[in-house]
Amino acid sequence: MELHILEHRLQVASVAKESIPLFTYGLIKLAFLSSKTRLLGCSVGYGGLKSSPPRAVAPSIGQLTRVLAEIPPRDSCPSFELLRHEPRNRCKFFSLTETPEDYTIIVDEEGFLELPSSEHLSVADATWLALNVVSGGGSFSSSQPIGVTKIAKSVIAPLADQNISVFMLSTYQTDFILVRERDLPFVTHTLSSEFTILRVVNGETVAAENLGITNGFVKPKMVQRPVIHPLSSPSNRFCVTSLDPDTLPAVATLLMDVMFYSNGVKDPMAAGDDCGHIRFFSFSLIEGYISLVMDVQTQQRFPSNLLFTSASGELWKMVRIGGQPLGFDECGIVAQISEPLAAADIPAYYISTFKFDHALVPEENISAVISALKVSQAEKH
User: Fold this and answer.
1) Does a structural domain hold residue 269?
2) What's the whole-model pTM score?
């Protein structure tokens, strides 16, 4: 298999829920005014079909302005006249995830310029690079997703053994492994025996150059990785889906309301007084491909014919990792979760955020997952 080092230089940031109005203008530009937007169809999505749906460009600024005009005036809503004259941004990697605690933003350097400098924006102290495991050649946009549990032994565990911290972002299309730019030589040396390592330069995939680690590198012994953080499983049932950009104008008002203006208010149908229900929504626009993670209550707000899901309509349950905010310097958190799942052959999506981590597993496997992770916890003691 191939390991691709993507060319995006990324920032990971957090915005407190009460401060999001300060950033709504820039975030709407990043989500809806990209230079091009397209959708990947693969064997696990688009109704289970292997053929790709049509690619399309993003809505025009005029279309978006008309959509924005439908939103009732709010202090944090962008100025329609200003937005009309905005150029399309050059951002190619953007992800926004809302959790009960905050908003996590992952964005490339070009997109980061769209965000105002503010004391309310917490930025991780590193530049990150995105890695992508590809089977069968090509790029992430033309290959079948691998799945985080499929790369647990070949990527996640070896990096944890070398005390290399990773930040995960699973999307409808693929899984991105984010590593600090300064760790890249150690990453490539660690994984070079398992993968053909390629680098994306100006959109072209080329052989990765020697990154300088050759001597004195000792392969560590494999060790058990017990789960060392508290786990919880909210009552939400989630779907992982995508959207044809041709339909973006039709749902832009709804998407912006969900992303910025719902204030985490639970749908009355969510489960009455169910205190286990949490607010979680993730939107990614990466190299023109859209990915959405939402619970079924939010999904029901969208027209049923516009979202792409698996033919089986598979739903997912979440395991939240962490009792208090996780540190960026701590290593092995993803490995502690993904290795037991890989051993049980249970697929998973994995989304790291600024404060906590989140694994999504098939709904029917949640009991087995909790049991497997509890066994890992018990082995620790």
Assistant:
1) no
2) 0.83
